[in-house]
Predict the structure.
Amino acid sequence: MKATRCLAVVCAVGAAMGAGAASAAAPAGPRPTASGTGRGPSAHGVLLADQDGGRQLTVHTGDVIEVRLTGRHDRGPAFAWSLPVSGDPALLRRTSAGATPTGGAAGRFTAGARRGTTTVTAQRRCHAAPGSVCPHVVVPWKVTVTVA
């Protein structure tokens, strides 16, 4: 049941990014390779999710990285992600981003023409509903990306 709910949220984040951006064809050229743990390439390049925080990966010029982070919204507080950002937009350019009503966030990045290493980061924070309280905790999410 939990896996089905997670899949539904991932699909909702993709839909929130826009049908054109979420369903674009795979990039031409070499496919990205992953180093370390986590999932490998998806149809669009590399797909990263909540559990991929801390991951290191290598991509090539023109490759696409999709980030899909899942928020949580209970009856009281909501735990929402900030939009993912690149540490070096010239090296890894964000081409789209969006958020869901449940606190999820997504971003799509394209590797630039030069080589180097940068990060993709986001933060999850609690947002209190009327009459509820939140812990003052920020959960960081970071992936290190090398463009080879």
